[in-house]
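ENTRY TYPE: paired fold submission
RECORD: A
CONTENT: sequence, then structure tokens
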Amino acid sequence: MLVIEAAEYSGTRITARCAMEQNRDVFAVPGNVTNKNAWGPNTLIKQGAKLTATWEDVWEELPSHIRTELEDEMRASGQIESNGGTAASLFSESETAALPEQERLVLDKLQRDQSTQLDELMEALEAQLGSAEIFTALFELELRGRVKQMPGKNYVRCF
């Protein structure tokens, strides 16, 4: 369930509360605190709903098999190219090729649906890159929105 606006005593708020009680995923888009209809999503976020800023926030939460099925359906209907790209892919192959070599090496070791611990990443790349180069590449990739750092120094590929 995705909540964009909901007043304090709205049906949306009641439905979202019931969904949370049943351990269903609830996503909420934060709103301006001076807007009375932002009370619902802002409160839901405080109560554990997943903060949602873009469609990618919802896409990342989908199980891998669901994402794969959706991508296959979108390919079949011509909504995305069938050359192996994903629906979440916002970067073309040429943009990836344009990355510096260190960043490409780090990006190639990361997966979209499974985080990689920093120590594992450094071990996998120790023959090609030094630790300073890996840290720099991760930093640059994070700034570009290509990599996301998770708790515990774990990294996941965004696209």
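RECORD: B
CONTENT: sequence, then structure tokens
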Amino acid sequence: MTKVANEVALIRDLHENLGSTLMSTLVALERGTMPAADVLEVLRECVDDSRIVIDSLEPMGHDVVVLLATMRHRLGPRLKAAGLNVHWEVQDLPLLPWLGPPQALQVMRIVQETLTNILKHAQASRVRIATRQTTDEGVARVAIVIEDNGIGFDAAVNRNGRGLNHLKSRAQVLQATVEVVSQRGTGTCVTLTLPAAMASSS
């Protein structure tokens, strides 16, 4: 992907995410329908969004480990302040040649949205973020696993929920998959599986 195409993809992401969030928050403030605490939380999320977009432009050498280290640096303080104990179990992984800035941003968004869902809904005290290499029918893959000890939910009932579909849509852009395993009272495990090599779109 060319530099211009990278910039267009990142600008589109800013518009669709940060821009729409700020606009909807502004409308809610003008109507007086959003409490101050909710406004503060939205602003924190917007700051995280902007930082993640900027971070995705930094040289990562096609390395998922570097990507996750960047996210740990950015999101760690906020997660800790929210009372979430995060265990990072990140091992060395093969480089992903296709992992440029737009793709890195998609991966970061999936991780970010998963962690945001945990903060908002899971009532969890602990999160485990791990990586592993897998081989499926001779095809090498890299997996990012995010597992919490929260209240869980009925994944069979909520499999078509908006949040889950959003994660899957982002994953499809990367020729990746997102699997969610959860039951009420048992926590939730989200696994993002990335291809070691991306098939040609032609």
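NOTES ON RECORD B: The longest strand covers residues 126-136. Residues 3-195 form a domain with the Heat Shock Protein 90 fold (CATH 3.30.565.10).
STATUS: closed
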